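PROTOCOL LOG
Step 1. Enter all chains and additional molecules of the complex.
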Amino acid sequence: MQVEKFYYDNKTVKMFAYATMFWGVIGMLAGLMIAVEMYFPALNMNLPVTTFGRVRPVHTNAVIFAFVGNGIFMGVYYSLQRLCKARMFNDVLSKVHFWGWQLIIVTGAITLLLGYTSGKEYAELEWPIDIAITLVWVVFGINMFGTILKRRESHLYVSIWFYLASWAAIAMLHIVNSFEIPFSPFKSYSGYAGVQDALVQWWYGHNAVAFFLTTPYLGMMYYFLPKAANRPVYSYRLSIIHFWALIFIYIWAGPHHLLYTALPDWAQSLGTVFSVMLLAPSWGGMLNGLFTLRGAWDKVREDPVLKFMVVAVTCYGMATFEGPMLALKSVNQISHFTDWTVAHVHVGTLGWNGFLTFGVLYWLIPRIFNTPLYSKKLATNHFWIGTIGIVLYVVPLYWAGFTQAEMWKQFTEEGQLKYQFLVTVQHVIPMYITRSIGGALYLTGVFLMIYNLSKTVASGKLIANEEAEAPARSSEVHTHGKEYWHRWIEKRPIQLLVFSLIVVAIGGTLEIVPTFLIKSNIPTIASIKPYTPLELQGRDIYVREGCYLCHSQMVRPFRDEVVRYGEYSKAGEFVYDHPFQWGSKRTGPDLARVGGKYLNSWHFAHMWDPRDPSPGSVMPRYPWLFQNNIDTGITAAKIRAMQTLGVPYAKGYDAIANNDLKAQALKIADNLRTDIKVKQLSATEDGIDLKNLENKEIIALIAYLQRIGTDIKNSGKKQLTELK
Amino acid sequence: MKFIHYLEKISGVDVYALSAFSIFFIFFICVTIWVWKADKNMIEEIKKLPLSD
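Step 2. Run joint prediction.
Step 3. Record the structure below.
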């Protein structure tokens, strides 16, 4: 058979490798910053762009889509070429993919800091960027498919299956969850409301973990771990079962993020059942990875690459054991809204994603630069610093999580709640401090790696086009024994893609569709009315400042929550919430029933300086809300967008909405101007303009806060009618 | 966008879950059977792909 000569493209691999390191540092620095702000809120210097609510989405988006994203592309571009025995399909597409993705990241970071956010966790980027992501994803897909189609190797190794399924699932998740109605060049409202928005969002959110942070990295594990250990994977058969079972089951597990919420019970149960089932394929994969090292554990002692990979796979095992446990309702009622979840996530991201990326970088950079690693010792030091960093990060947060849950639920013998919320916050501050030290150590390790790898790069020369040889793919099919159906699909990438997509779509469709179609899922509550224009503006400020990242709006039906916050939340309360703002973490108290709980002046003083009415609070100050005017020019567009989404504002209301807005604002401003506390504040502090108060954003925010959860409170239970 | 509620009641929704589970279960059994019966030499050949570049 004729042997063909060709060249692997290492330049693109190098660029993605550099990008993953660069964005890793940026994303982790953002993480460290907000970790410190959790006990030292003044670190934001009272600027909007450095405040927790705006930096946190930068952290999550940067580490997921920039650090891990570029890590995925680095791994795929390196391994796919070699597994297919072919150069990437098109060099121009590779360039467009690389630079397009970096542009998305930069635009994303800037817009998030400026407050342009869709308000949905891990999907915060606004609509123009969502479109750009779709386009670049398609470019990546064409480049990947083109390579697979022109391959010289007839078999498709299991890593490629993982890459294909990840590509298809991410495309589907991104498109479905990004369904939104734009009302300005950079702002939109979610196409879904309340319960439906929550279900779609967590179907997306959970599967972003599954198909962005897990399956592409499993593909990388199945390629790079055998490479680094120089032995084939323990069981290829197990990897096939791992693949199909994982992608099928994963897609169902999303509702475990919404246990005990207003999501219909059947959907919650489904989420729990599939989450528990997920344990089997996840551990199958983990054991497959670890058993690959059987007989080679002596190498682990010597080789930092294997050290990183072993801890990565172990962390994958720990996180995927813990995940199903957290999906059990009895465990979830303790863990949800606490720092336990944050600890769980970071076992996965710091351990699994971070360490696997570092292992691959240490393995790959010396190879494409044709030189040995500058210092094995330094890499080993990185390993230990990183490992200690992970432990110091997660252990205090587990502790904080248990503590929060315990303290929130304690009652005195007289039947009163034992602890004020603020007491529970102050109690966990030492844990937050330790966590930030752990994070700082982990980041120090990354700097060590960058130094080590830059020295390595300096001592070698990039083999931009690496020469390789392979026989052309034969058109005749070699069979071993009898052909089975799976053998058929496993050689046909397009069919494999379509089949993977069907498998992941089944779960999503069967779970989401009934929620949209069945009327009794969302009982209509007669007293629930759309937001007034001022409240709507205030709600958008709430979303802009990322309040949902620390405050939930979901009272679960537990004794302590009902006593602490008020009536538990009903599905019908959220029908006009585009997007839903249930939140996933309570660094501060729940706000679902905050409306009418405090005076306007309390909110005023609290937003000016939270430590004034609440000494010891860790919430940042929001002085810019007292300076910025409400953007009334956009009110009409907002009302029209809401009308498009089915919110029942009267026809033509957009034209007169600002009249109502101004009247309501004036009422609140007048109320504040007569308040003694507000007068005192304006006399002693710079930056409070009592004269033009009705035009300021703080008034809109107060209007919204005073509205939350009041429709039910005021109506009494009689009006809770389920339409038959 | 207005979502129209086509169905009035939640009863019968278990069909969705059961059918999905059945699809998965049947598929899972098929994959397992294939994996069980697959040719050993072929599996060995594919298994070694990452080491052969």
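Step 4. Note key features.
Chain A touches chain B through 57 residues (CB under 8 Å).
The first strand of chain A starts at residue 3 and ends at 9.
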